[in-house]
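Supplementary notes for students who missed Thursday's class. We covered one full example, reproduced here. Read the sequence, then the structure, then the short commentary at the end.
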Amino acid sequence: MDNIITNADGVKVKVRVYDFGDEVADRYTIVYANKNIKDGYGVVYYPVFSCSEDPFHPLGVGMYAGDYYPHRSHMYNFGKRVKDIDSLPKKVIEFIKYITQ
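Structure (token representation):
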């Protein structure tokens, strides 16, 4: 169920994308699940980004939102899981390719 995308460098990476709907400015949440990063205590976490439908627009949103710790998954509400990454707006896919390079 993890989405694989080829980033701007031509490398395949695994991301999870969630959709909050159009009620919020940072509609999409992207969990970059490809990197196995550990904190100072040796606990694995994944970087999280959020973006609007057009993150590169001057009024758009495209930002680092924090870290996701899988062992604390009950604490997060990212919205509804997007199963098909190709169904996302082209600008969101472009943003995902940019942040995962």
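Commentary. The mean pLDDT is 90. Residues 90-99 form the longest helix (10 residues). If anything here is unclear, bring it to office hours.
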